[in-house]
Amino acid sequence: MHFDMRQLDKGQRYKIVSACVTPRPIAWVSSLSAAGIANVAPFSFFNVIGHDPPTVAIGMVAHGRGRLKDTPANIRETGEFVINLVDESHAGVMNMTSAEAEPEVDEGALAGLALAPAVAVKPPRIATAPASFECRTTHFIETGAHQVAVLAEVLHAHVRDEFISDAERLLIDVPAMKLIARMHGAGWYARQTDLFEMLRPQG
């Protein structure tokens, strides 16, 4: 079946792209406004797009009330944020922080998250997250009405000690992290429990 995306409304377009582009890693973003108001929210239009320098990209759609969401508003003001990755044990509390709260609401405090200072940026990281990336914005691109794409350099990475299998060789025990991903529909997620391996052909 063919869809002319330009002829569909935004809800229909969201259904198609979010159902077909799966699974999607979750960027659980902690940020601060210029006034110092903390914010924590998850975004699944997220991925890494390079390693030299290490660069990530996050797509952030409009708030349900037709304005810029608090996280991109904070990032536009300060240029700094932390991406925290989400494991199975944090799924419920991550979902709590996805509520569309008012800008003055600190979702991290509301959800009872343990926060820790970052090294190079002002927003804190989630101390119990399996991994966190301290980020500084390189490009803030408006892609639609109150919709943005943020490209950022990863300045520091934090990985919990129990997931480091060999510190000298920088080997991380990825299965042990039990990261989750977004799938289709309003509330579907996936675990990383059904894996297969294919090695790249040698040319």
SSE string, helices as H and strands as E: HEEEEEHEHHEEEEEEHEE
In what order do the strands lie side by side in the largest sheet? Answer: 3-2-6-9-10-5-4
Oligomer: single chain
Unreliable stretches = none
Mean pLDDT level: 94
- How many helices? 5
Largest sheet: 7 strands, antiparallel
> How much of the residues is beta strand, in percent?
35-45%
* Category by helix and strand content: alpha+beta
- For the termini, the CA-CA separation is 37 Å
Radius of gyration equals 17 Å
Total beta-strand segments: 14
3D shape? globular
Helix content: 10-25%
General description of the model:
- The chain is 17% helix and 37% strand.
- It has helices at 10-20, 70-78, 91-96, 107-110, 174-177; strands at 24-25, 27-32, 38-43, 45-51, 54-60, 80-84, 115-116, 125-126, 131-144, 147-159, 164-166, 171-172, 180-182, 189-191.
- Strands 3-2-6-9-10-5-4 form a seven-stranded antiparallel sheet, with helices on one face. A three-stranded antiparallel sheet has the order 1-13-14, with no helix packed on it.
- The longest helix is centred in the N-terminal third of the chain and has 11 residues, at 10-20.
- The chain is globular and about 50 Å long.
- The model has no long low-confidence stretch (mean pLDDT 94).
What brief labels describe this structure?
203 residues; seven-stranded antiparallel sheet; 17% helix; three-stranded antiparallel sheet; alpha+beta
List the helices and strands and how they pair.
Elements: H1 10-20, E1 24-25, E2 27-32, E3 38-43, E4 45-51, E5 54-60, H2 70-78, E6 80-84, H3 91-96, H4 107-110, E7 115-116, E8 125-126, E9 131-144, E10 147-159, E11 164-166, E12 171-172, H5 174-177, E13 180-182, E14 189-191
